[in-house]
Amino acid sequence: MAARSLWAVQRLQRLLASGLVSESGGWLHPFSTATQRTAGEDCSSEDPPDVLGPSLAEQALRLKAVKLEKEVQDLTLRYQRAVADCENIRRRTQRCVEDAKIFGIQSFCKDLVEVADILEKTAECFSEGTKPEDHKLTLEKVFQGLSLLEAKLKSVFAKHGLEKMTPIGDKYDPHEHELICHMPAGVGVQPGTVALVRQDGYKLHGRTIRLAQVEVAVESQRRL
């Protein structure tokens, strides 16, 4: 309404300036020269302005912009949540790795404690208060304790995948055997095979963790 009122006032001012309307409020003759001169201009240039607001295209663009802005906000929020989740997973994984390093041998140590108990009980057999006539009984107890200790150790090793290698007669393998020296091949011993084990080797779940110290059989003339 305000726009139309302003348009009406401006049109009235132009009519006064062109002489179509006198200052006293009277209209001039419609066929006068001033009327003919300004009639075309009034029809072509003095139409009321478009006050219907933005076009449909502009409205569609605004709605699309609002929709895209909401999508950007939603994607940003999802990204922030994903980053936070990844950071939490990384921290939990790092904590699990650290715990595994510290407590990875917990079960093995627990089994070794039982071995230590057997050793302690066996050592008690050699107390200072032992009488000479009890030496035989003491030795029997020590033998029983050592036998029990050996059996327990084998059980613990088997439980945790620790295996003692028995390379006698096997072909020499530098990945499993540490060569100490050569010895002449005897009867039934093939050159290049392990003839004697100085120190046992061990594997953990199939992986060699300690090489076996061995002597390898060779022909007599190649003895070192």
From TrEMBL:
<feature type="coiled-coil region">
    <location>
        <begin position="58"/>
        <end position="92"/>
    </location>
</feature>
<dbReference type="InterPro" id="IPR013805">
    <property type="entry name" value="GrpE_CC"/>
</dbReference>
<dbReference type="GO" id="GO:0001405">
    <property type="term" value="C:PAM complex, Tim23 associated import motor"/>
</dbReference>
<protein>
    <recommendedName>
        <fullName>GrpE protein homolog</fullName>
    </recommendedName>
</protein>
<dbReference type="InterPro" id="IPR009012">
    <property type="entry name" value="GrpE_head"/>
</dbReference>
<keyword id="KW-0809">Transit peptide</keyword>
<dbReference type="InterPro" id="IPR000740">
    <property type="entry name" value="GrpE"/>
</dbReference>
<comment type="subunit">
    <text>Probable component of the PAM complex at least composed of a mitochondrial HSP70 protein, GRPEL1 or GRPEL2, TIMM44, TIMM16/PAM16 and TIMM14/DNAJC19.</text>
</comment>
<comment type="similarity">
    <text>Belongs to the GrpE family.</text>
</comment>
<keyword id="KW-0007">Acetylation</keyword>
<keyword id="KW-0496">Mitochondrion</keyword>
<comment type="function">
    <text>Essential component of the PAM complex, a complex required for the translocation of transit peptide-containing proteins from the inner membrane into the mitochondrial matrix in an ATP-dependent manner. Seems to control the nucleotide-dependent binding of mitochondrial HSP70 to substrate proteins. Stimulates ATPase activity of mt-HSP70. May also serve to modulate the interconversion of oligomeric (inactive) and monomeric (active) forms of mt-HSP70.</text>
</comment>
<dbReference type="GO" id="GO:0051082">
    <property type="term" value="F:unfolded protein binding"/>
</dbReference>
<keyword id="KW-0175">Coiled coil</keyword>
<keyword id="KW-0143">Chaperone</keyword>
<dbReference type="GO" id="GO:0000774">
    <property type="term" value="F:adenyl-nucleotide exchange factor activity"/>
</dbReference>
<dbReference type="GO" id="GO:0051087">
    <property type="term" value="F:protein-folding chaperone binding"/>
</dbReference>
<dbReference type="Pfam" id="PF01025">
    <property type="entry name" value="GrpE"/>
</dbReference>
<dbReference type="GO" id="GO:0042803">
    <property type="term" value="F:protein homodimerization activity"/>
</dbReference>
<dbReference type="GO" id="GO:0006457">
    <property type="term" value="P:protein folding"/>
</dbReference>
<dbReference type="GO" id="GO:0030150">
    <property type="term" value="P:protein import into mitochondrial matrix"/>
</dbReference>
